[in-house]
Amino acid sequence: MSTPTSLLTDRYELTMLDAALRDGTAARRCVFELFGRRLPGGRRFGVVAGTGRLLGLLRDFRFDEAEIAFLRDNGVVSRETIRYLEDYRFTGSITGYREGEIYFPGSPILTVEGTFAEAVILETLALSVLNHDSAVATAAARMSIAAGDRPLAE
Questions:
Q1: Among positive and negative, which fits the CA dihedral 140, 136, 114, 87?
Q2: Contacts of 3 (CB under 8 A, 6+ apart)
Q3: pLDDT at position 51, please?
Q4: 149 contacts 29 by C-beta, under 8 angstroms
Q5: Distance (Å, whole) CA 81 – CA 101
Q6: Within 13 Å, how many C-alpha atoms sit on residue 65's CB side?
Q7: pTM of the full predicted structure?
Q8: 8 A C-beta contact, residue 13 and residue 123
Q9: May I ask the CATH class of domain 11-146?
Q10: What is the per-residue pLDDT across 20-34, written as a single tens digit (0 to 9) for each?
């Protein structure tokens, strides 16, 4: 059994979903792009990593009974949003760079297309996985480049 990931999101995303369901914009088709704005200290590229892990997490992304109960019992979102989350399934599309490819600041690493409601609650999970995994892969690439032909162990 996998660990649920649906509450690994910012409350902000849940309240945006709640507002969109209330004002009728939840079904609006949207495109979200995940990209690095800048790289630290003179670095010219990053290495994409985490796409496989993210896609696996997204495939199984659901709100289970305990998570629904937490949201309901703590008044995090409205009853309408609770009903939406009980049946949540992402039906949009995701495209992006392949694992191990380099990227440059401002280039879209991942593009998520779907309804606003489906896509907005995935933002924190996508950012968390890709930011961490890409940072590790980029550091490894930089070490490998610096080592040249010398053996490298971390």
A1: positive
A2: none
A3: 95
A4: no
A5: 38
A6: 0
A7: 0.87
A8: yes
A9: alpha beta
A10: 999 999 999 999 999
